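LAB NOTEBOOK - FOLDING QUEUE
OPERATOR: T.R.
BATCH SIZE: 2
PURPOSE: Compare the predicted structure-token outputs for two unrelated chains run back to back under identical settings.
PRIORITY: normal
REVIEWER: second-year student, initials M.K.

ITEM 1
FIELD SEQUENCE / FIELD STRUCTURE:
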Amino acid sequence: MPYSLKQAAAACGRSRSSVYEATKSGRLKAEQDEKGRFVIQPDDLKNVFPEHSENVHSEREKTQINEEKHSLFLQTIASLENTVEALKDGRNEWREQAKAAATTIEKQAEALAMATAASARAITQADEMRRQLGAIEHTKPESKADTLPTPPTDARAAVRPFFWTAIAAATIAAAALWQLWWPWWTGGN
């Protein structure tokens, strides 16, 4: 790509007047375009001003490489920003799950504490009842009522209480029947 006089001066690191003097003296080959402006080929410029021209080409290459790197950096930054947003969303989701789990654990801990307190009260009451029962058993005198009666050995003695009970029941039943039957038999009088 050909240079203008100004571009050639910038490319070789000289002033515009130095490049113009080199074209006028014939050291630097330059052509004129249809508008009368000088057009200088990069190879010709390199032949006349070699030390700075190579630096310019390397600078252009560096610039081009830097532009490519810049583009890659921008793409990488955009990708990383997307990753950061995804991580933030994931973090927020995990945070909500952790809060829900913590709430559940707190409720379960409260329920466990209440159950533990109720259990402790029940154990205390049971211990108190055992203590009272033990005190009652130790203070209670032994009586003959605690022992079982021995059955009579004689058969008549065994039947006697049942016999008198049966006679008393028969007498009561006869009196009740008489009360019911007599008014019916006599016609209500």
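ITEM 2
FIELD SEQUENCE / FIELD STRUCTURE:
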Amino acid sequence: MDETKEETLTLAYRVKLDVTRIKSDMLGMLCDFFQREHHAQLDFLDSIVAQEGRLVLKGKSQAGEGEFKQRVRYRAANDYKRARKAAKALKKQLKLPYLHAELCDAAEVQEPRKAISFDLWVHIEGLSRDCQLYLPARKHRALNRALDYPSASLCKSAQVMRRKGKWYAIVYVRCALPEPCEVKEWYGNDVGVRASVTRSDGYQGPDLHPILKAQKKRTAERQRQGMPHDFGRQTPQRQALAREARLLVSVALATGRGIALEDPKRLPRYKQWAARYFAKRVALLASLVGVQVTLIAPPYTSITCSKCGSVETFRYRSCFRCHRCGYTANADFNASCNIRARACHYGGSHKSPKSLLPGGGEVIGDSVLCTYLEGGWREGDGS
């Protein structure tokens, strides 16, 4: 009997490196050399395609040139294939994906042996075995949370990069995806601004207006002082939505229910950014613990009465009233009830949430690749 491959999810986390000035200078030189070799390899691959019409690497081995150059070629080949596939899909001219950041994709993660004051050691072997760097790093809460998942393991490969004068390492955690449990009851969820998240059981998340107002005031003050914003990729409203996503998944796991969400790709633009971010967070966190998630078509969920099903209704801000049966309720709560009802009607088979993962949930080998940097998920790279 053929054994099916276990599907895994690879998460990427960024940890800060504790480096001295001498190691920082050596890292800078290695990153510059990695960038130059990466550019040369891209030009070499492009010349092969121009001559033979397709990418043929057979007979062009670089064995014996060292692990560093082999990692450069591997990274350049993957970047070139990805850029060529994207140009073909968009019907545009191929633009070579040159590296513009100080990055070295030739590092590996090691567990501490003698120096136990640090949790991780990132090892980089340069052009020869005499040039070796050992960079200490400490784990953080998000990385430890990922390692606590069942069958989670720390990958050996890593990347080293410099951002705003500080050195970081991107480490990867591979988690096995459990089979989602069969459910009969669902939690309908509606994403808004007055209430960040409204569930069909009556729960309402915090109001995003004070958060947006404080963020706008803080950004304006920093711009007045000539300083850039300091939120990074994880803005305060994204942090609030991430907390609500973790709470929703934990409640669904404890009660044995599924999660029903509006398909963010079919929402209006003013509402799409928050709903898409929330749905991506929920889909990723739920896939790690085996909670079933389904996406519902959003048309008429806001104006349909959850009691009688009539669309002859009146809605103004958070107030909802049905002209047929006289039902009055919070507008977001009424929408979440409609989402739950549709999920129960379709039985959780309306649409898979994997379309929200980076790359459309594409399985690369036996692993779905996602990226988590500074608490935010970022698409195109590859809790």
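REVIEWER COMMENT (ITEM 2): The chain has two domains: 8-176, 186-377.
FOLLOW-UP: none requested
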